[in-house]
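ok, trying the design again with the full structure, not the truncated one.
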């Protein structure tokens, strides 16, 4: 342990470590677009050398230029730590500040090889969702956290630790920004250029805010989504037994889909072109069967439909081939979606039909324009096949990955007859928005920093007791949401959801989040939970994110393209007690398409933590409720009125209804 602690305290080593060999066994990021001029490449190397003493420059300059030429980025592979990367128990981290140790725990979980999509490129999920741009930034950040005192704040500029600044004990310990560009410089190629220069990064959502908890985080949201999609197509309140759900992607986020399909009781077919990813999900038992042949796949699905058995099937190949094969065979699909990383379509987020995985990676590097056209053609074919299934009664929804947006930009037949809207809804429009977000329900997370299963079991029991108690007297509008989450948390351990840190997620409103957090804090105080608990959430929530094609897709007053809510959210969390806060450009639907914010809060059993959690969690939800209510969302108006009845110091501006006949 001392060697590990010494390495953290050291930060960037004074003596150059040996150059690391490229590890072909790991899943690596594809080579990025060659977008810099020769002068800009020199600037990128110069920028990278800023982290190192001058006497190392002659060695590192050549090495960093080679990385830039070979991979399109400077990752500084030489400085990958020699110790194993995982979230250690909090007391194993060096430092003076308990909150800083908790943040180190969370950062290492994001980079755990079992958790991260491209761990050596510091990318947690989504193809480009980075924790840091390079390993020097990681080393320096961990050092600063080990030095941090209770009255300091670490400032993070897109992975770069700007420094430790004096603040005060009630201020956040870390403030994170990622990709905050001048608006006119927020196009896809701008990310490619400025990321290659080493001056910005794409933090995705929970990657760059140190709050990723492995695919469990999205298993829950996907379970809720598929469950409610099933209710929408049910004719006699029947469940999903024997019904077929077809989708794609088995990466850091999308890998949750087959697991969620099993939990909801349907048959899931999920296509993935990367064999390493398929193997990982199979070894984790997140898929039951792997098929490599379309005839074999069709036969397996028909058998499961006939027997009404629960099956999750990974198809190693392209999703377009699956859709077209099922159409040809007359195989009916009940639910359809897609979760390839289409926010990043030209750099490995989507692989076009007709090319192997290796051919695609070569083409995107050697002829990016030709690759781009191949992606567009593939999206046209995929949309055409989906349209054919939809005519036969399939319910298709965009799962927030920019599928509809990129298909429309590719010229696919994705618009309605009037040509003014997509022919398919975003899942937020039909499901998450009106059923969850408008009532304050969103993805509440916690992490047990002890690393002990016993602590996680205790938090599960506490959360279950709180939800059951709330459900007894809950309004009719939220009874189903509560029952779904009671069922979820009761079966969470049995479903074997943990990958990485001892973490859990459920959907709760402001009342539920505050009561669960209070109970955790009291249990820590009573030594029933042996170490601090970190609270957080996905940015994909009621208040944290402004995203017209996802989180705010069911905002219809014209404000869905504004970002006041996300900015106000992170400012408000900062002075109401969050341990760390983050605000990002980009996220699930792409660079320049969304602004999203997150937080982390450390519960240590103190009275101060109790005060902070009540203030911050109440705001963190009700900021979004107030905005959604002002947009005339009836569920949010109802929730805002209830919140004002509960808290006399809350006054929300509510809309007056307008008679459409006047217009």
């Amino acid at each position: 342990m001392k060697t590990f602690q010494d390495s953290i305290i050291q930060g960037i080593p004074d003596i150059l470590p040996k150059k690391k060999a490229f590890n072909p066994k790991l899943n690596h990021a594809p080579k990025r677009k060659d977008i810099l001029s020769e002068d800009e490449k020199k600037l990128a190397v110069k920028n990278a050398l800023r982290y190192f003493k001058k006497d190392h420059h002659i060695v590192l300059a050549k090495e960093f230029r080679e990385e830039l030429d070979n991979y399109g980025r400077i990752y500084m592979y030489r400085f990958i730590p020699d110790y194993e990367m995982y979230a250690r128990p909090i007391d194993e981290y060096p430092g003076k500040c308990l909150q800083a140790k908790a943040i180190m725990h969370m950062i290492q979980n994001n980079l755990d090889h079992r958790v991260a999509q491209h761990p050596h490129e510091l990318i947690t999920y989504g193809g480009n969702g980075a924790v840091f741009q390079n390993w020097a930034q990681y080393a320096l950040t961990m050092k600063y956290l080990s030095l941090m005192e209770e009255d300091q704040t670490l400032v993070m500029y897109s992975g770069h630790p700007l420094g430790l600044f004096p603040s005060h004990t009630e201020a956040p310990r870390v403030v994170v920004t990622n990709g905050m560009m001048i608006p006119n410089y927020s196009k896809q190629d701008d990310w490619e250029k400025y990321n290659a220069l080493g001056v910005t990064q794409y933090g995705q959502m929970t990657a760059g805010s140190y709050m990723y908890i492995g695919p469990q985080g999205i298993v829950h949201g996907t379970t809720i989504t598929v469950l409610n999609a099933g209710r929408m197509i049910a004719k006699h309140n029947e469940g999903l037994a024997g019904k077929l759900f077809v989708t794609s992607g088995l990466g850091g986020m999308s890998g949750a889909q087959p697991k969620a399909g099993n939990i909801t009781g349907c048959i899931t077919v999920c296509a993935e072109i990367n064999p390493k990813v398929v193997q990982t999900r199979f070894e984790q038992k997140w898929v039951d069967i792997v098929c490599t042949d379309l005839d074999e796949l069709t036969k397996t699905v028909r058998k499961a439909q006939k027997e009404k058995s629960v099956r999750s099937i990974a198809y190693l190949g392209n999703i377009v081939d699956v859709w077209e094969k099922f159409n040809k065979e007359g195989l009916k699909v009940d639910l359809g979606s897609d979760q390839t990383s289409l926010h990043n379509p030209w750099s490995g987020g989507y692989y076009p039909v007709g090319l192997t995985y290796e051919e695609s990676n070569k083409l995107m590097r050697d002829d990016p324009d030709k690759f781009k056209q191949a992606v567009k053609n593939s999206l046209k074919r995929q949309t055409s096949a989906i349209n054919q299934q939809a005519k036969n009664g399939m319910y298709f929804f965009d799962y927030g990955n920019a599928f509809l947006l990129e298909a429309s930009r590719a010229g696919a037949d994705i618009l309605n007859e009037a040509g003014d809207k997509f022919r398919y809804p975003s899942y937020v429009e039909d499901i998450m928005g009106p059923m969850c977000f408008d009532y304050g329900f969103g993805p509440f997370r916690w992490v047990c920093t002890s690393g002990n299963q016993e602590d996680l079991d205790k938090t599960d029991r506490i959360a279950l007791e709180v939800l059951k108690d709330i459900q007894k007297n809950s309004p009719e509008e939220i009874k189903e949401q509560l029952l779904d989450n009671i069922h979820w948390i009761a079966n969470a351990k049995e479903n074997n959801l943990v990958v990485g840190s001892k973490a859990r997620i459920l959907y709760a409103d402001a009342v539920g989040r505050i009561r669960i957090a209070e109970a955790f804090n009291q249990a820590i105080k009573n030594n029933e939970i042996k170490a601090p608990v970190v609270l957080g959430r996905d940015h994909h929530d009621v208040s944290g994110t402004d995203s017209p094609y996802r989180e705010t897709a069911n905002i219809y007053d014209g404000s869905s393209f504004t970002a006041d809510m996300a900015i106000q959210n992170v400012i408000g969390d900062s002075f109401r007690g969050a341990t760390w806060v983050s605000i990002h450009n980009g996220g699930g639907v792409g660079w320049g398409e969304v602004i999203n914010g997150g937080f982390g809060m450390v519960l240590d059993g103190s009275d101060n933590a109790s005060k902070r959690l009540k203030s911050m969690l109440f705001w963190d939800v009700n900021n979004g409720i107030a905005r959604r209510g002002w947009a005339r969302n009836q569920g949010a108006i109802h929730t805002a009125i209830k919140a004002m009845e509960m808290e006399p110091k809350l006054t929300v501006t509510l809309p007056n209804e307008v008679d459409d006949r006047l217009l």
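Keeping the full-length input from now on. The chain has a mean pLDDT of 95.
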